[in-house]
From TrEMBL:
UniProt keyword annotation of Cytoplasm present: no
Segments of skewed composition (Basic and acidic residues): 81-121, 132-157, 164-322
Transmembrane segment boundaries: 12-32
GO terms for biological process, alphabetical: bacteriocin transport
Protein name according to UniProt: TolA protein
Residue segments, region Disordered: 62-322
Length: 425
């Protein structure tokens, strides 16, 4: 018991409190004064005087002496004798009365002593009974205290067991959460590695695209250089044509001077102007063609680069979205998988084993749920039978009886709107 009290000190306080309460009740109920006895219940006491023989003889002698002092006549003598006889009779009667009174007093004293003895015995018996009752109450109170202490100890042991179970459950939950965190960390690391790999591939593709763009720019620059060289050639050709025109003009002038024909000079000038105009038109057309080709090549290079960049960005966004979607689906699947054993345990609590059911039976049922875990009526269907009809029906009944089932909320619940449950004993 002391071990119980050491484990549960509150039981000691309860015990002390109950002892104090019973002590207070005993102090209040105890009779410390002698109970009063009704006067009518006692025997009547007769007051009597006991007279001895000597006193009686002395009284007779006094009477005789008083009679002796009287005159001695016959009448008086008869009266004296009669008085003596009366005195003797009275003395005898008084003696008998005294003896009877003594006997009555003795009987009364004996009866009084007997009554007092009986009253004392009854009082002692009552006190003994009260003491025994108090002792019995104290023993009962002590037993109740011990029972209460035992119950408190059992409750404390049960509480400690529950606390131990709760701590174990918390530790299991922490371990599961830690495992989930480790899985999430591994998944995140894998996702980061995949993202880095894809980023490196994208960087390589971008570097390749930049290289191709640089080559396109180089080609455009080369084309521009060639166009500039062509323009310079055209300019040199124009200069040559101008020089030729100048030479023709000079020749025309010399011819005009030689031949003094104004018409020939005009014709030569017209030819020179026409040659100059043709050279300028040819130079302008060639420059415009070169600029147009350069603009078209630059536009094509920019369009190709923009298209490749947009294609790469769209591909990267698509890959990232696919990766995030896969990660989210995997996370939802892991979270949903944690609820399957809980749902199976919930159904097992409401499952009643049919007679002659083995432990190797396995059945698969399908159920539809609403948010909150309630099973939709008439929605539980048998997907795969165990071969034992009573076992299959008992599992379906257990699913209905276990409603509402423990399910998550939010997006994870969508996996439980209609799901399959594998059940075995």
């Amino acid at each position: 018991m002391w071990q119980i009290l050491r484990r549960n000190p509150r039981a000691l306080y309860w015990s002390l409190g109950l002892h104090l309460l019973f002590g207070l009740l005993f102090f209040v109920s105890a009779q410390f004064t002698r109970p009063t006895v009704d006067a009518g219940s006692r025997s009547r006491v007769v007051l009597a005087s006991i007279v001895s023989d000597r006193a009686l003889e002395s009284m007779v002698a006094d009477i005789q002496s008083s009679d002796a002092g009287r005159p001695d006549d016959p009448a008086s003598t008869g009266e004296a004798r009669a008085g003596e006889a009366e005195a003797a009779r009275l003395a005898e009667a008084q003696r008998a009365e005294a003896a009877e009174t003594a006997r009555q007093a003795e009987r009364a004293a004996e009866e009084q002593a007997q009554r007092e003895a009986e009253e004392n015995a009854l009082r002692a018996a009552e006190q003994a009974a009260q003491r025994q009752a108090r002792e019995a109450e104290q023993r009962e109170a002590q037993r109740q205290v011990e029972l209460e202490a035992q119950r408190q100890a059992e409750l404390e042991a049960q509480r400690q067991a529950q606390e131990t179970a709760r701590r174990q459950a918390e530790q299991d939950a922490e371990r599961q959460a830690e495992a989930a965190r480790q899985e999430a960390i591994e998944a995140r690391r894998a996702a980061e590695a995949e993202a880095r790999r894809q980023a490196e591939a994208l960087a390589r593709r971008q570097a390749e695209e930049e290289r191709l763009a640089e080559e396109a720019r180089a080609r455009a620059q080369e084309e521009q250089r060639r166009a500039e060289e062509a323009a310079r050639e055209m300019a040199s050709e124009r200069e040559r044509l101008r020089a030729a025109a100048e030479l023709a003009r000079r020749q025309a002038e010399r011819e005009r001077e030689r031949e003094r024909r104004a018409a020939e000079a005009a014709r030569q000038e017209r030819i020179a102007r026409e040659a100059t105009r043709m050279a300028e038109d040819e130079e302008r057309r060639l420059a415009e063609d070169i600029a147009h080709q350069a603009r078209e090549q630059a536009a094509r290079a920019n369009a190709e680069r923009s298209a490749r960049q947009e294609t790469a960005e769209e591909s990267q966004r698509t890959r990232e979205e696919d990766l995030l979607s896969a990660l989210a689906s995997e996370q939802l699947a892991r979270e949903a998988d944690r609820y399957i054993p809980v749902i199976r345990d919930r159904v097992r609590q409401f499952w009643t084993r049919p007679p002659a059911t083995g432990r190797d039976l396995v059945t698969v049922v399908s159920a539809r749920l609403i948010p909150g875990g309630d099973v939709v009526p008439n929605s539980v269907r048998l997907i795969k039978s165990s071969g034992n009809t009573s076992f299959d029906q008992s599992v379906i009944a257990a699913v209905y009886n276990a409603s509402p089932l423990p399910v998550p909320s939010g997006p994870t619940f969508e996996r439980f709107r209609e799901f399959d449950l594998t059940f075995s004993p």
